[in-house]
Recover the amino acids of this structure.
């Protein structure tokens, strides 16, 4: 069969799965007064369409910031405005000021779901497609890789189930990576800036981009590396300026937007999330012992310490492989140690892991399964149990069967040749650990659904899920850091290396 | 054992398709969902004597007794999900547990379909062996059957139990190929007692078994040797058929309810065509009648008052009289059907070609009944498409015919799923299946030339604009309010052309096939 037919079939399967997931419920469906992320997005369309731009981020009589005030950077606001224009053509009631609060209907749900699918098709899927195209290997492996990458459950469930537009920011980051892969440094930087201006959480990916570009420029200091660095800085500044143009009219505007997108007066964490602070608080109530200021400094220090090794290594030795590892390490470090982390932020670490799925199928599959599992409490709240089970099992099936994830567990496949003497029988240990992990995930999922938690510990199951995820993420953090830090340094011109 | 070789790709394929079917659980379901809920309620709550008399719901039991027993068996498990669904008075009752149970029951009964598909894959002639899994004929057949667009749409969205019925049909066909005609007859008779629509293909079984099983020997020139008529074999077959019918209808005959049951099974008071015209000959007949009546009114040859306004396109299932062409009665359709299948039956009588000839005759009987039957549902096209898949992976000509029949047949199923949220799923699945069937079969017969000629390609390409206009553009025009069924009419008539063409093409290729020259060693 021809490659084009195979790719078309893979794309059809992934679109069908996305639409089938979108048949389910969304976040906050039928739950007044606050509803959920779906209503937040609809409300932003209402705000951006009906109010002038200088009122978008301010608390006015027309814009109650307590009710889903805009807390993403301007690009999200522009996207909401675009969607609002389309909504107005179909049914103005959907975005009528005040009266459309809590609006829910089948037709509206279809419209909103379509906006996510359109965003997916235009930004994220082409990026994945192009990335797979650039990878090396026989075409059968590449098509298998494409299918597995497009069937990653976490993103499908959050974007097409819970309802969000992560595909835009993550897609743009992928375009940034692709830019760097192809030596289109300026385009890559612009894509990264756009991603950052869509969701401020993309700052998790900023250190690797910065260090890679800095490292490459420093390597070529003699060949105009400094000039390159200055050009990149200029491009970044111009991109930011373009995006923030309407808000650069007054200092107050800028400040307010920044205050909205970085809410430092919230706590160290909200809800149960698989990061270190939440897990620590099971034994040690960190939020109560330390003051707000100390908490901020503690998390800042911990995050910085954790990302430092990988960033330094990347600056000294800027390879694309190192860049990918660095993306994983930094985003995972931020997730585990940063401030006000939401469980959905694991997607920021999951997408870079997708990029190495074909190189390290075993560990990548394991990580991606755990990342989906870590969002289980959120998915259960949204009524997405069935798609969660189906997509997770399907992902395990395709990676095991098509990418031989469970077979490629040798020391070479895990790239741990140096360490094989310290851990005897590494493949066997790894396989057994994976089996235990998957069984534990299945059991915990089953328990969370079938049983009621004891009345003394109403959040028992969510806490178990976050603890379980946190332990796994710490292990993966160690693994990917080891892989990056012990990667042999390459001493040559770096611009052309993949 | 061939299964162990297949296991490497079969298990992941089966699991993958099953997971996808589970993902479709929250999709739209049609009134057939309520039909089956009602039947479970009837069989659970009422004694057997009342099953075929119960009329609380408009969806009365109109399948043979074995299906009623299946519903009874399912109702036992249903009570653990939601007891309220088993109350007969709870018309249109629905709850999450009910939907989950019903959908899972279809997915679980599909196990029989999977077993049937595996049997078919093992039975393929292995003339083309390829190292590439994707180009193995058994893999291609497995995908064409397991991922069949029609089965997925009709069973797992619209809601029906065709999967396990087709599984039994495949098992019966495979038994015939393996030289076990008695088993084949047994399974087929049981199948007919589950859903009587399979009577369409009963003549193929009857004539073939008579000719190739009961008549043990042939004369040297291949014609019938009447003296070798094996009464024992005939009696065995007759006994099996009668025994199965006795088990099925026996209790109702004893209770004196046979006429009621038969009246339920064969409701001839319904119209010539279903609400959505099945793309058969009568669709073309109705279409021609409509066109002639419009021309007649324009040319003032007919008075508009004479033409009934409650047309067949009104979506109501009722008797209708044609305006210009002569009206058609059930007897007329029966005669037409019999005439259409007679050449095929004569063919396997006069020129027996073993099980292959039997399967060809089966497909032609199914197609003939589809073309000329009374009140045919468009879903009945699946009885022709699925068995034809078995030939499509073995023979280049049949592959070409299959592509035409499957593509037009599947497109004609589109009106079954008319809700907007399911539209992208329907389109993507159709594209998936069409792209797969075309590219896989082209790759399989790469060395033997193209599968379709130019005119066939042009006709099939016409399906795309047709679908776009009917489903996407027309609903937004001003005619949609006044003439809502016009796009369905066009879809039906256009697809019926393709199906008619595939039928004739298959017929000609079957009639032209030479008899096996040497004396047939009969089973």
């Amino acid at each position: 069969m021809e490659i084009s037919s195979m790719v078309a079939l893979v794309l059809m399967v992934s679109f069908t799965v996305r639409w089938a997931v979108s048949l389910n419920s969304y976040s906050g469906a039928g739950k007044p007064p606050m509803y959920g992320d779906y209503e937040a997005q609809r409300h932003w369309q209402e705000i951006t369409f009906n109010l002038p731009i200088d009122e978008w981020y301010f608390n006015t009589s027309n814009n109650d910031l307590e009710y889903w005030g805009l807390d993403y950077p301007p690009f999200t606001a522009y996207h909401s405005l675009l969607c609002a224009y389309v909504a107005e053509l179909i049914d103005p009631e959907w975005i009528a000021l005040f009266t459309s609060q809590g609006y829910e209907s089948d037709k509206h749900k279809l419209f909103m779901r379509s906006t996510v699918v359109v965003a997916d098709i235009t930004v994220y899927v082409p990026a994945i497609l192009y990335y797979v195209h650039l990878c090396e290997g026989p075409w059968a492996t590449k098509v298998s890789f494409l299918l597995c990458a497009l069937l990653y459950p976490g993103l499908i469930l959050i974007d097409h189930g819970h309802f969000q537009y992560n595909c835009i920011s993550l897609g743009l980051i992928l375009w940034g990576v692709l830019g760097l892969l192809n030596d289109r440094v300026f385009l890559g930087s612009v894509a990264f800036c756009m991603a950052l201006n869509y969701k401020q959480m993309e700052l998790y990916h900023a250190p690797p981009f910065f260090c890679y570009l800095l490292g490459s420029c420093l390597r070529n200091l003699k060949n105009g590396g400094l000039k390159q660095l200055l050009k990149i800085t200029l491009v970044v500044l111009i991109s930011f300026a373009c995006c923030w143009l309407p808000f650069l009219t007054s200092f107050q505007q800028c400040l307010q937007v920044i205050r909205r997108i970085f809410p430092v007066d919230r706590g160290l964490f909200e809800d149960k999330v698989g990061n270190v602070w939440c897990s620590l608080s099971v034994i040690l109530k960190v939020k109560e012992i330390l003051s707000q200021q100390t908490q901020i400094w503690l998390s800042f220090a911990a995050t910085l310490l954790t990302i430092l090794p990988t960033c330094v290594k990347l600056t000294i030795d800027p390879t694309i492989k190192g860049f990918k590892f660095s993306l994983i390490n930094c985003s995972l470090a931020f997730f585990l140690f940063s401030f006000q982390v939401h469980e959905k932020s694991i997607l920021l670490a999951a997408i870079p892991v997708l990029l190495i799925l074909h190189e390290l199928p075993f560990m990548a599959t394991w990580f991606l399964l755990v990342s989906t599992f870590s969002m289980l409490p959120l998915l259960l709240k949204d009524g997405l149990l069935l798609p969660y089970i189906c997509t997770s099992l399907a992902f395990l099936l395709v990676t095991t069967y098509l990418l031989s994830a469970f077979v490629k567990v040798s020391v070479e496949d895990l790239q741990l040749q140096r360490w094989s003497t310290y851990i005897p029988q590494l493949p066997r240990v790894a396989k057994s650990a994976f089996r235990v992990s998957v069984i534990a995930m299945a059991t915990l999922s089953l328990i969370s659904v079938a049983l009621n938690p004891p009345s003394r510990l109403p959040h028992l199951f969510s806490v178990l899920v976050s603890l379980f995820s946190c332990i796994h993420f710490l292990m993966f953090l160690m693994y990917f850091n080891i892989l990056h830090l012990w990667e042999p340094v390459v001493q040559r011109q770096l611009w052309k290396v993949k | 054992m061939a299964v162990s070789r297949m296991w490497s790709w079969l298990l992941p394929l089966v699991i993958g398709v099953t997971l996808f079917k589970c993902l479709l659980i929250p999709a739209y379901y049609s009134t057939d969902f309520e039909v089956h809920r009602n039947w479970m309620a009837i069989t659970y709550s009422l004694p057997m004597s009342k099953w075929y008399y119960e009329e609380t719901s408009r969806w009365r039991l109109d399948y043979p007794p074995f299906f009623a027993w299946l519903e009874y068996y399912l109702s036992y498990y249903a009570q653990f999900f939601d007891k309220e669904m088993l109350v007969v008075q709870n018309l249109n009752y629905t709850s999450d547990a009910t939907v989950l149970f019903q959908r899972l029951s279809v997915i679980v009964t599909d196990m029989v379909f999977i077993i049937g598909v595996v049997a078919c894959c093992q039975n393929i002639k292995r003339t083309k062996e390829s190292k590439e899994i994707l180009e193995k004929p058994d893999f291609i057949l497995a995908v064409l059957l397991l991922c069949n667009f029609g089965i997925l749409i009709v069973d797992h969205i619209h809601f029906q139990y065709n999967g396990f019925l087709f599984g039994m049909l495949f098992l019966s066909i495979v038994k015939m190929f393996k030289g076990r005609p008695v088993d084949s007859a047994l399974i087929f008779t049981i199948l007919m007692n589950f859903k009587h629509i399979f009577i369409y293909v009963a003549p193929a079984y009857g004539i073939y078994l008579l000719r190739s099983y009961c008549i043990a020997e042939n004369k040297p020139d291949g014609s019938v040797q009447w003296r070798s008529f094996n009464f024992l074999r005939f009696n065995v077959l007759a006994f099996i058929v009668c025994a199965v019918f006795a088990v099925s209808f026996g209790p109702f005959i004893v209770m004196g309810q046979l006429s009621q049951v038969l009246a339920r099974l064969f409701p001839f008071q319904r119209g010539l065509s279903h609400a959505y015209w099945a793309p058969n000959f009568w669709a073309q007949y109705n279409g021609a009648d409509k066109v002639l009546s419009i021309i007649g009114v324009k040319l003032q040859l007919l008075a508009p008052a004479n033409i009934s306004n409650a047309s067949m396109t009104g979506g109501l299932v009722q008797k209708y009289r044609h305006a210009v062409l002569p009206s058609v009665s059930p007897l007329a359709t029966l005669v037409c059907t019999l005439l259409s299948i007679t050449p095929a039956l004569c063919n396997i009588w006069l020129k027996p070609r073993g099980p292959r000839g039997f399967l060809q005759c089966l497909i032609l009987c199914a197609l003939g009944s589809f073309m000329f039957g009374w009140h045919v549902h468009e879903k009945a096209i699946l009885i022709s498409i699925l068995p034809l898949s078995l030939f499509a992976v073995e023979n280049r000509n049949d592959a070409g015919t299959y592509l035409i029949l499957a593509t037009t047949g599947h497109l004609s199923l589109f009106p079954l799923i008319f809700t907007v949220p399911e539209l992208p799923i329907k389109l993507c699945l159709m594209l998936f299946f069409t792209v797969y069937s075309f590219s896989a079969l082209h790759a399989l017969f790469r060395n033997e030339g193209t599968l379709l000629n130019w005119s066939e390609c042009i006709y099939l390409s016409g399906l795309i604009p047709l679908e776009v206009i009917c489903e996407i553009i027309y609903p937004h025009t001003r005619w949609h309010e006044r003439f809502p069924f016009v796009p369905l009419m066009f879809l039906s008539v256009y697809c019926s052309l393709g199906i008619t063409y595939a039928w004739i093409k298959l017929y000609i290729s079957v009639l032209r096939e030479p008899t096996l020259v040497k004396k047939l060693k009969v089973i």
